[in-house]
Design brief:
single chain, 474 residues, alpha/beta, Rossmann fold, 2 domains, 9-stranded mixed beta sheet, 19 helices, binds alpha-D-glucopyranose
C-alpha cells in the first residue's frame, strides 16, 4: 500500500519529542513489511546540513495561505529504504527557533501552510498515497482541507485519512481571527472548526478524519472518559468512538540495543548482564555520584506537571534518606529545573541533575541505572519505559495510558513496579517495593533478564496500523 506519513518532526531530521521517534520508526517498519510508506515534514533550517545535502529538489509550486499564494519547494531523499519529502519555505521554517520548533508567534500560519502544501504536493509528484496518516495538531488541517477542498478532484477522491493523537494536551487552539485570514476556511464552517469558544484544529481533525488513532488503548479510553485527561475534548470524542482506536508504540530495537549500543560504557545482553554493572559504575563516575551498591534511579524526559514531577518533589528527600541515588536528565518547567538543581546541590554524590538534552547521557542512564522512574499523571504511550525494559532497567510507573498497557507488577508476568492511586505516598511505596526486591539479588537479576526479553519492537504495532489502512482502503 501507499501511505503518506505527515509529521512536524521525524528522526533522523529533527526531533523534540516522542513523535519524532514514531515518525522515524513506523514508516521504516511499514516499508520493511512491503509497503511504500513515505514521510513528509517541514524543511527546518535547524536540520543538520549533512542530512540536507542528501536531498534534491524535485518540484515547486504555490500554495494558498488565507488569501495569499506562497512558494513551496519539495526536496526528496531516501534513508533506510524510506522516501522523505521536505517542504521548503524559508519564511516559515528558516528561523532561529529559540524555544524549540513550536515556539513561534505564527505557528498557526506555519502549519496551515505545511498542511495545505502536503495536499498540493500530491498533484505535483508522480506518486499518490491511498492513506494519509497525520499526527498531532500541527498536521490536523490535512484531513480538514482534504474534505473541504480536495475530495472533489479525481486524484483525491479515494484518499483516506487517519489522524493520530500523540498528546491531546496540545490541540492547536487559536482565536477566531485566524479562520478566514490564515487557515483559509470560510466563516460558515465556524461550527466545524471551533470548540469551547476558539478555533481548535485537533477538534476539526476529529470531525473530518476517516479514523482517529492514539498511541495506546488505555489512552484511547481515558480521553473519552475523562475531561481532565482529554483537556475537555472527551465530550466530543465520545461521539467519535466508532472511529477511534489505540495502538501502543514500539521502539527501534536496532538502534536501542544494549548488545551493540556505541553510546554506552560496556555492551551486555540478557545472557550476560555483567556489562550492565560496568555501565552503572561508569555512569556514577560520569555524573559525579559516589560509587556503591545503593539503587540508582534514572529519570529522563520533560519536566512538566503532567509527567508527575510534583509527586516526586513531595517525597524526594525521603527517597534519598531511604538510600536511593538519582541520575536525572531533562528540561522543562522552571520550577522543576530549579528543584532538581537544588537537590543536586543539597545531596552531592547522591543526586545528579543535568538540565539539558543529551542523547548520549540519556542512553547511559537507561543502561546504567537500576530503576527508571516515570510517575506520569497522563501518558499517551511513553517510550522511556520501553527503552528501560530493553536495557534491563526496571520501570517504576503510575498506572495510566501507555504505562498501564506496558508495565505490570507482580510475580506472574510482572516487569516493573506500578502504583495506581495518584499520591506521593503511593509513589514512595512503589519505590520502596522496588528497593526491597533490589536487595534480593537473585530475583532482581531474574526480573532484569526477563524485562530484556520483552518484545517492544515495531513489528506488532505496525501490523495493527496495516490492518487499519487496509480496512480504510478497502
Ligand atoms: C507524546 C506522548 C508520549 C508518546 C509520544 C509518541 O510525546 O506524550 O506518551 O509516547 O508522543 O507517541
Amino acid at each position: 500500500m501507499n501511505i503518506l506519513y505527515v509529521a512536524s518532526e521525524a528522526r533522523p531530521f529533527i526531533a523534540s519529542g516522542g513523535l519524532a521517534d514514531v515518525a522515524g520508526a513506523l514508516p521504516k517498519q511499514l516499508c520493511k513489511d512491503g509497503h511504500d510508506a513515505r514521510v513528509v515534514l517541514p524543511l527546518y533550517s535547524l536540520i543538520d546540513p549533512k542530512l540536507r545535502e542528501g536531498l534534491r529538489e524535485i518540484c515547486n509550486f504555490y500554495v494558498s495561505v488565507g488569501w495569499r499564494s506562497v512558494y513551496c519547494g519539495v526536496l526528496e531523499g531516501k534513508i533506510d529504504g524510506v522516501t522523505y519529502y521536505l517542504l521548503d519555505n524559508e519564511d516559515y521554517f528558516k528561523r532561529s527557533f529559540p524555544d524549540g520548533i513550536y515556539g513561534e508567534y505564527d505557528k498557526c500560519e506555519q502549519f496551515a501552510f505545511f498542511s495545505r502544501a502536503v495536499l498540493e504536493m500530491i498533484s505535483h509528484i508522480d506518486w499518490q498515497p491511498q492513506v494519509i496518516n497525520c499526527n498531532d495538531w500541527q498536521t490536523a488541517l490535512v484531513p480538514v482541507y482534504l474534505q473541504l477542498f480536495y475530495k472533489g478532484q479525481p486524484l483525491f477522491e479515494n484518499i483516506k485519512s487517519v489522524f493520530t493523537i500523540h498528546n491531546i494536551a496540545y490541540q492547536g487552539q487559536f482565536g477566531f481571527e485566524v479562520l478566514d485570514n490564515i487557515v483559509g476556511i470560510p466563516v460558515y464552517y465556524t461550527g466545524l472548526m471551533t470548540f469551547d469558544g476558539c478555533v481548535n484544529l485537533m477538534k476539526a481533525a476529529f470531525e473530518t478524519a476517516d479514523k482517529i488513532t492514539t498511541v495506546s488503548l488505555s489512552y484511547a479510553r481515558e480521553i473519552v472518559d475523562s475531561d481532565v485527561l482529554s483537556y475537555g475534548l472527551n465530550r466530543l470524542l465520545a461521539t467519535k468512538q466508532y472511529k477511534l482506536t489505540g495502538f501502543v508504540n514500539g521502539i527501534d530495537v536496532e538502534e536501542l540495543n544494549p548488545e551493540t549500543d556505541k553510546l554506552i560504557a560496556k555492551n551486555y545482553s540478557k545472557d550476560d548482564i555483567s556489562g550492565k554493572r560496568e555501565c552503572k559504575k561508569a555512569l556514577l563516575s560520569e555524573t559525579g555520584l559516589t560509587d556503591g551498591d545503593e539503587p540508582l534511579i534514572g529519570m529522563v524526559g520533560r519536566f512538566s506537571i503532567d509527567k508527575g514531577h510534583k509527586l516526586i518533589k513531595e517525597v524526594f528527600d525521603q527517597m534519598v534518606a531511604d538510600g536511593c541515588k538519582f541520575a536525572i536528565l531533562g528540561t522543562g518547567e522552571k520550577e522543576y529545573e530549579n528543584f532538581y538543581r537544588d537537590m543536586a546541590a543539597r545531596y552531592p554524590g547522591k543526586v545528579f541533575a543535568g538540565i539539558r538534552f543529551d542523547n548520549g547521557l540519556a542512553r547511559r542512564i537507561y543502561a546504567g541505572a537500576d530503576m527508571f522512574l516515570m510517575p506520569s499523571l497522563s501518558e499517551p504511550c511513553g517510550l522511556a519505559q520501553l527503552i528501560s525494559l530493553r536495557y534491563g532497567t526496571i520501570p517504576i510507573v503510575h498506572e495510566v495510558g501507555g504505562l498501564k498497557d506496558t508495565i505490570k507488577e507482580g510475580l506472574e508476568g510482572g516487569n516493573g513496579f506500578v502504583f495506581n492511586i495518584t499520591t506521593s505516598e503511593e509513589l514512595q511505596k512503589a519505590v520502596r517495593r522496588a528497593h526491597e526486591l533490589y536487595g534480593d539479588r537473585e530475583n532482581w537479576e531474574k526480573l532484569m533478564k526477563y524485562d530484556m526479553t520483552i518484545d517492544n519492537s515495531w513489528g506488532k504495532s505496525a501490523e495493527l496500523y496495516e490492518g487499519l489502512y487496509k480496512e480504510l482502503a478497502g
